Fold this sequence. Notes:
Blueprint: E1 33-35, E2 39-45, E3 57-68, E4 75-80, E5 87-90, H1 92-110
Antiparallel strand pairs: 1-3, 2-3, 3-4, 4-5
Amino acid sequence: MAEPRNDKQPTPDECPGWCARRHLQEDHPEDRLHQSPPIHAVLMTGPSWLPHDAAHRASPVVARLVQHTDSSEAWLEVTSEEDGAVRLAVTPESGRRLVALLDSLLEMLRA
């Protein structure tokens, strides 16, 4: 059985310090989120099989913290701004592991 969602919007005092979203009472319950300010970047992406360099393309993405207002867990989210090609949502701990993994791979390139 699904847990009931809270119908009350948070007050500014109830928001995490990083929340920049304006909460409206008429927001749909599924849209009641805390969100950090967006961070924009352009990533070079390509198909998973990477046939050659020509398959790469620039993908504008936005990264932010998100947390449902009735949850105590925040997520790190990276999504495409345009076409949905990039979608990653991980917990903070998984985000730290991903950063360490990527740093290890980048270190291999420097060697």
